[in-house]
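Q: Got a minute? One more chain.
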Amino acid sequence: MKNNPSFNYEKTEKMPVQQRQRTIRHNSAIPEVRTRKTETTPVSKHSENDNIVRCPYHHTRHSLNECTKFRSKTMEERKKFIIANGICLKCCGPDKHYAKNCATLIKCGLCSQSSHPTALHIDSPSRRDSREKENHGGEQSREAVTISCTKICGTVKGTSKSCAKILPVKIYLKDSVNQCRIVYAMLDDQSNHSLAAPSLLDAFNVDGPEYEYTLTSCSGSVMSAGRRAQGLVVESIDGSCSFDLPTLIECSDLPNNREEIPSPRIAEQFSHLADIKDSIPELIESAEIELLIGRDLISAHVVEDQRHVTGNPVPYAQKLPLGWVIIGPVCLDAVHMPDKVTVHKTYVLSNGRPSVFQPCDNKLLVKDDDFLKTDHDEKIAPSIEDTTFLDIIDKEFQRNPDGYWEAPLPFRTQRQLLPNNKPQAINRALSLDRSLKRNLIKREHVSKFMDKIFEKGHAEEAPPIPDTKVRWYLPMFGVYHPQKRDSIRMVFDSSAKFNNISLNDVLLKSPDITNNLQGILLRFRREKVAVIGDVEQMFHNFKVKLDHGDYLRFLWHPENNLDLPLKEYRMTVHVFLNRPSPAFATYGLRRCVAYSDPDVIDFISKDFYVDDGLLSCPSEDMAIELMKRTQLALKEGGQLKLHKISSNSKSVLLKFPADDLAKDLEGFRYWWR
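A: Always. Here it is, folded:
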């Protein structure tokens, strides 16, 4: 039989109550608490210790086999307690004897089995389900099916078929208003004392002796014990009303049936309750039912307003000082299936055949068109490092206040600590000095290159850092282009190893996002007007994160004077030979025009091979306009300069200033005529 709110002595859930060693105080006058019993269980008819006076666990008037709190412990904890107290493992009776000498006929009061006493009963759903499963080609056989009402106010799971006087409240100490606890409270005018769950008393650090009391309900009287709490205040959830709570008695058997809590969805399903739906709070998942307010706080039971329909079996609502509550059955048809029904449930399999077995969740579907072709069939799937690299640049590739794009060095998550390779950098710098002293022309070219990177802010003097901080030095060497013997490019060697490790070894390998050169060349030959351009110092246009600049240190002479001692500098941009630099450059180039015209985005995304763009258009005007808009988009989007423009049309070349043309075409305006 079930009425609400309820006390459930035969609990199967483990209550989260802290275990404390407390002294039970026995009074000559034991108070009596009367309340409504909400769930009754038949008394087992077996010979388990019928004359027990005291529970060895609680020292109260019930047997160990009747102690629900003892059964909430784990089996290991129960057995340890039984052995430590010299109790028989077979019958768990009061007489101390060994199990091998026990002649008691035992029978579990919960499952009626004779293999264990009630105190050692364990009801494991997972174990029960595993015994019911049988191998039937991936199907499971279940004869006992638990079903719930399917006509509950037209709402989803979370709505109950019957609501009680339960509402959320705030609980706090009188002298500590700001430290409150939100719980659900039951209002029960059939109880002569207010009760509190152990978790509520634990939350306010209530300590002290346990007092015995008698709990009287429909099933009879039960001796129990609990702490007392005073000085607590209950307040409505909206703060409009508060009461000083009377002395609360600890009760570990308060029900926590959350399905009986009213909700706004219930109110909106009934026309006479629709106007109060906004006054009923939504369900609070973190709050539990931890308080029962009895008649000793009669002010909380005063009905200030109500909503009801005479003659119809529909729920009614009451406005109490602490808030609105809904009472009664809430199903629209007022008809309920039992909580548990034994039926043969029928499933429909994928082939249309009915079956009493539950189909397996894992299915293998074979399509008729097995060999579908997509645009990605010929592409290599990204590796884990590729995905990690793309995640890093998507999150941390940002534009700084100067308008340049900035990104960190993408280090591997698991990497070796870099040693201090300054001795290697010194040896390589001295070797470069000897080479420059022998070749004065090369020395002049190197000086011009170094002046340029310092003037543009691509390098700066390195500040001193603690010896404990990791740093890395990049050796330098010069490279001449076969067709450009009048200029040199100084390369910072990120692959140089020291103690068998280099900077590139600890950086992520970037994905290959460079455009296919074959496709670029084929599109370049499609139209009659051809134009090409180059991004100036492509790699040096993307800044490196400031604190990562110490991994890009190098040694050089101040003012390019080889007679002065070497000094430490560091790069402020990503360098050419860094493993991820090509991907950074390509990605950054596309980010610069992300909000430009579609044809500009298409040109940058498809027809650029690293820093070289190849374009062909049907007309000269179209080629000129597209190149000029691309120049503007790159300048505004990331301070990039598109220059070294060349074309097979003199009309196109005449539309661009001489500084933007390729080097061998700078004077063509004079000799073209």
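A: Residues 162-329 form a domain with the Cathepsin D, subunit A; domain 1 fold (CATH 2.40.70.10).
Q: Perfect, thanks.
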